[in-house]
Amino acid sequence: MASAADPPGRLAAPARSARSQGDQDQSRLLPVLAVERAIRAVLLIGVGLILLTHTHTDWADPARRFVEQVGLDPSRNETGRLISGLAGLGPRQTLRYGSIAVAYGLLEAVEGYGLLRRRQWAEYLTVVSTALLLFPEVQELLKHPTGLKVGGLVLNVVIVVYLIIRLVRRRR
What is the pTM of this model? Predict the structure, then answer.
């Protein structure tokens, strides 16, 4: 219905109900998670494409040089283990790891897009994919514990719990 302040022939916009205004998602954490997923997606896809296009490269020497350039000791346990693992990487393994990195990067990109758009399916997808990877994370942490692995595990558990709480509250 037009009000006295509106020009003749023009209808006033319907007022938004208090319920529809309250339904807007005000979470500030979802965009942060979306950006984190997008960064991981770009890195994973980039590394995957490099591996896929350079299957016959000996990755141990570039890794050793990079580790030295950033000021780390290439003979330390974790760094040395990584470099020795790269030394034994054949073309088929490089192709396999590159494919896995690209596929996982695409999954991260889909999650990031959905979380940024505040889609419920993205929250479910993120919970499932992150929760499934908690088990290998715990196994790796038990084999070779580091502070970085503990931090990553704690962060992933917090993300899963946060999203589960959001999903449960939304169902009520």
Answer: 0.76
